[in-house]
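Researcher: Structure for this, please.
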Amino acid sequence: MTLTEQFEKAVADSKSITTKPDNNTLLQLYSLYKQATQGDAGSEDSSNPFDFIAKAKHNAWAQLKGLDADGAMKQYIDLIASLKG
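Model: Predicted structure, token format:
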């Protein structure tokens, strides 16, 4: 199974996790997914200064700048595996 296939399986598996992860874990999942699928975050932040969720998501993604897609996929797969138990 290729890394991309493993990643796609992990994305599908993420939808079947029975207990909701904490907010930090959700941000980590979001940022790893975005890094794996879109690369580095752009410099554009939310135009609404009171949209704290969008700002947190963007900041989490921006912290992964420079991480290649394969590395992000591997980390995402490992995180989903640890959540599944």
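Researcher: Any notable elements?
Model: The longest helix spans residues 23-38. The mean pLDDT is 94.
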